[in-house]
């Protein structure tokens, strides 16, 4: 009987070591996230250089890609969701930063697939597809290698099936959108203080479009509905700013007509 519990102790120790390996990669990622957060906070400063801030943030995309590559490489596909909870909050935070930078650069919303291309290095399947193209060329050049190449293809495909598919979860992408919206609502208020009256209307239109998209979705996740309340608060704050600006504009027009 003692041997049974000794075996459990070994499994517990292995699990602890594996979790520690994951946490080590996450710690490195959180350090990068902290640096990005400090840089992005400058957007709320008066006369901030948005273009320069976005450029600085994008310099961290490559190191972040390495962090995610490390995480996706060490986690087996059959245990991915067991350990994904360790870094889902970190993923949402990074997604929100990238969405914010993209909005400042283009005024549009970056898709989940586009973010995955930025942060998640090509998985094994993509590498195999490229290798398969090379294999086809080799077959045409030398027919004697066909049997060997076919064996090689089978081995590669077998290895691919064991790998974790690299993508972000939909909920984490949506939470990233909500976090970005919170930052934009704060930025909207600071724009008025800096006498920038056009950008708040662009932000308002952008968030209204997001709101229309969110209403199309049916959320079974009660926890996510709490995050949705945060988005509604951000949208309401922006709408209040726009309402005040419109009232001020109307008041100015009345004064001009009276002169």
From TrEMBL:
The keyword NADP does not apply. GO terms for biological process: RNA metabolic process. Pfam families: Translin. GO terms for cellular component: cytoplasm; nucleus. Residues 128-155 form a coiled coil. Keywords: Coiled coil, Cytoplasm, DNA-binding, Nucleus, RNA-binding. Belongs to the translin family. One of its GO terms (molecular function) is RNA binding. InterPro entries: Translin, Translin_C, Translin_fam, Translin_N, Translin_sf. This is Translin. It comes from the Eukaryota. It is found in: Cytoplasm; Nucleus. It comes from Anaeramoeba flamelloides.
């Amino acid at each position: 009987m003692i041997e049974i519990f000794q075996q459990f102790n070994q499994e517990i120790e292995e699990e602890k070591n594996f979790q520690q390996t994951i946490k080590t990669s996450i710690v490195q990622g959180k350090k990068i996230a902290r640096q990005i957060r400090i840089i992005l906070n400058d957007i709320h400063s008066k006369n901030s250089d948005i273009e320069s801030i976005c450029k600085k943030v994008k310099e961290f995309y490559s190191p972040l890609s390495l962090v995610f590559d490390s995480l996706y490489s060490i986690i087996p596909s059959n245990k991915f969701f067991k350990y994904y909870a360790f870094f889902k909050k970190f993923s949402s935070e990074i997604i929100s930063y990238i969405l914010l930078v993209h909005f400042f650069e283009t005024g549009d919303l970056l898709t989940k697939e586009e973010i995955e291309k930025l942060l998640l290095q090509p998985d094994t399947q993509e590498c195999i597809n490229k290798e398969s193209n090379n294999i086809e060329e080799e077959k045409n050049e030398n027919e004697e290698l066909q049997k060997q190449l076919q064996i090689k293809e089978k081995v590669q495909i077998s290895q691919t099936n064991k790998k974790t598919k690299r993508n972000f979860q939909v909920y984490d992408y949506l939470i990233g959108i909500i976090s970005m919206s919170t930052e934009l609502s704060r930025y909207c208020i600071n724009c008025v203080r800096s006498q920038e009256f056009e950008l708040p209307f662009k932000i308002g239109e952008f968030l209204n479009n997001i709101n229309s998209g969110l209403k199309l979705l049916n959320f079974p996740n009660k926890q996510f509905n709490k995050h949705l309340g945060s988005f509604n608060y951000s949208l309401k704050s922006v709408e209040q700013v726009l309402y005040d600006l419109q009232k001020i504009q109307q008041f100015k027009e009345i004064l001009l007509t009276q002169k």
